[in-house]
Amino acid sequence: MNKQNNLLQKILVFLILVLLMAPPAFNRQKELIKTGADVLISKKLDLIYGKKLGIVTNHTALLSNGTHFVDSLVKIPGITVTALFGPEHGIRGNAPDGEKIDSGIDKKTGIKIYSLYGAVSEPTKEMLKDVDVLVFDIQDVGARFYTYISTLFKILQCSAENNIPVIVLDRPNPINGVYVDGPIRKDSLSSFVGIAPIPIAHGMTVGELAELFCGEHYIGNNLKPELTVIKLEGWDRNKYFDDYALTWIDPSPNMPSVQAEIVYPGTCILEGTNVTEGRGTTEPFLTIGAPFITPNKLIDELKSAGINGIELEPVEFTPVAIPGKTDSPKFKNKLCKGIHLKVTDRSKFESVKFGVKLVSALHKLYPEQFAFGGSFNRLCGDGAIKEMIKQNKTPEYIINYWQDELKNFLEIRKKYLLY
To answer: Alpha helix locations (H) across 272-394?
Structure first.
């Protein structure tokens, strides 16, 4: 009898351990979604049958099964891809930030690659001589200064100028499609990190942006491309990339996670200062610092400015060259002190406002050491932001400055929302 009881006790202990180790039954499963590329291949191949295709794409163009859109497309009878056009970081996404890219041949498919991040930013007539339809499929991150949407802008212009239809395969805004914030880019600050008069966090998909760029004549008053947007199926604009059963792949070498994408609209503006945004570390945009910073002092200042949904921790780090990611990070091989960011509540954290509070705190605490660089105005899109920080205006004053223009943009934006 004792042996039987001992056996039952052992079984009971084993079952309890199994239950404790198993994931909770109430854990939500990742939701299914079909990207524009999935929809094109599964339902709308008639749009491209018998056409010579020029595909504007990179490594982010994965189907829901994890295979690359182009690698799958070339295996379909009746489909002909004659040219590939690559944005910043190249077709396969392995070029460091800002590095100019040469044209060449794609090793996997043998198709000619034309770089749109080097000598030219849009296809020339010579590049388009064997192209009947342009297809755009690149994953954006939801921020104005991310150059993939600038490539989209240029492709729309090129499509109109050369009378070549363009198909945009939509993908989700990975940091949700409802968060919209930041100053509207001024015309005088038009650049490849500010291609259109939109806020820093635009809250739109690439398909919606394509409609906006054309519908509001941002690409040119007399330019009207033959545009088709293949919509997502199953996307909720309130959700994030990691809510879905999608294969994560770094959209660029220094964008390693959704956490980094969430803070990016705010911390990227540090690129226009002498404080590092964390390139040369394992967590860029989540790690910021400089040799002259006192971490706890900066944390206290930010807390006094009012921040929500984020934890700040003091950190020391040394930026180094990382092959394929960055060759010459700010403060290379020098000890930096600063803060590490961890988003704890996505619904409360507002990245652009945090970025303004961060730069304001740095200017206030380190007036002798902190300095702005030449790209700060281009990243903000409005030179008034820097001037107000230099005048020691409060973050609340600065944030209030862009509210009227932002409200106007939100009204314009409504016309182009597809979801």
So the answer is: 295-305, 351-365, 376-380, 384-390
In the predicted structure, residue 292 carries a pLDDT above the cut 60: yes
Q: Which residues contact 46 (CB under 8 A, 6 or more apart)?
A: none
Give me the sign of the Cα torsion angle 256, 257, 261, 263. Answer: negative
Instruction: List alpha helices for 250-294, DSSP H.
Output: 258-267
Using an 8 Å Cβ cutoff, are 61 and 139 in contact? yes
Q: Do the beta carbons of residue 56 and residue 206 sit within 8 Å?
A: no
Q: How many CB atoms lie within 10 A of CB 127?
A: 18
CA distance 356 to 381: 13
CA pair distance 175, 346, nearest whole angstrom:
9
Q: How many CA atoms lie within 13 A of 231 on its CB side?
A: 11
Reported as a pLDDT band with limits 50, 70 and 90, residue 31 is: confident
pLDDT in tens, 253-263: 999 999 999 99
**Structural contact between residues 40 and 167, judged by C-beta atoms closer than 8 angstroms:** yes
Dihedral angle, C-alpha 287, 292, 295, 296, nearest 10 °: -160
Phi/psi of residue 114, nearest 5 degrees: -115, 125
CB atoms near residue 41 (< 10 Å): 20
Q: What are phi and psi of 169, to 5 degrees?
A: -90, 115
Q: What is the mean pLDDT of residues 227-234?
A: 98
Half-sphere exposure in the Cβ direction for 28 (13 Å, CA)? 7
Taking residues 285-301, what's their average pLDDT? 98
